[in-house]
User: Fold this.
Amino acid sequence: MKKKKVIDIYPPHTLEKTKPSLIVGKKEESVLIKIEPKLKKRMVEEEPERIRSEEDKIIAELSSYESPLAKELPRLAKLSLKTKLLGIIIPIICIGLFYYLGFVVLTKAEIDITAKKLNLSLDNFEVLIDKNVSESNYSQKVIPGNLFVFPESYEQEFQSTGQGKDEVRAKGVITIINNYSTSPQILVATTRFETADGKIFRLDSRVVIPGAGSKDGKLQPSSIDVNVTADKPGPDYNIPACTDSCKFTIPGFKGTDKFEGFYGISSKPMTGGSLGSMPMVTADDLKNAENTILEVINQKISEDVQTKIPSTLAIIDGAKSGVKIEKLTSDVSIGDFRQTFKVTAAGEVSVIAFRNEDLINLVQNQFNAQKPDKYDYCQNPTIEYLKVDPDFKTGSLKLTLSVKQIICFHLNTDEIKSSIAGKNQQELTVVLNSLDGVEQVKAKLFPFWLKSVPKNLNKINIKID
Assistant:
């Protein structure tokens, strides 16, 4: 089979000049394909219609499709515009705020001025503080004072710490009988009376036994009651009443007729005798109790001084008396057998107080003669009390003082503010250096970029030392 080779496709206008040819005897044959003009025209006419049909179809499909982002696009566009506006407005606001704060609100000037100072002094200056005057007398150097008296009393119970033997002697009453003579008989104190079993009781005090009476030639016995105390302590001497069958004899009359003529009886028992260990009040107990209660009195009076004297009054050392003890008593004595005992104390303190302002005014009045006109008292004086002499009876207080006072050149802050308001740094320096009575001055402007003093006087702070 022979192969055919397409040589070319010729345009219509070249076909008229070319003749078809056929080459025989060769393996390949060239075939000339002729394209009719009508076919080309039809194809050209049909192609646009097909293309337009396809475009219409695509457009229809696109017009019927709704994108999910369709609803978001307007909002995104809107946000984008707002963001752009904020990007412009915010920097403008920040710049305006910075200017307003940095050049209007936060601006200030601080001026520190050290004024010229002078020292004044008074030596051995005497002042009288008197409760009997109502106002200061500068010429006589007298100021009013106040006398306060604070009485306090206190009672407290304490425990005894000692231990002692409770050796108590029995006591009682003996009736002495004189059945011996019509003459009286004297018995001295401590005269012994003896029981039948040998217990001795002694007469507490001297006694005269009256003489016996006489009737029909017979003696009529006389008698007298006397107090006696057992010769030894202890319960053994707590004996019952002793009648005629239980006589108290007088050993001192033994061997004489008086031994049988004078004797004693008792209508009541002897009581109170005892032996044992009991709490006892010692000397240290009483001393410690007194010190404790005096300390309480001192504390109570100190509280009175602090709370009952007005805070506007001054109290200096030496103007307060010590505690004057009016009473210090106890219901026991050293050696008493007591487990508890009470101590009572009463005392008072006197104080002379005065207004410190009155003293300062008096002192500064004395300085007026030394103080130049353009100077002021820029602080309170320093006062040293050389001598304090109180009289609590009259309510007066004599003081000897050493006083030192600092005075400062008078500077008017309002005038200074007016003179420097709105001045630049160079002008500010000139004005401040020209002020009278200024020893040293420092000026600062805030913020640091500020080049002149604010015109608003409220933004100018002046501190004068």
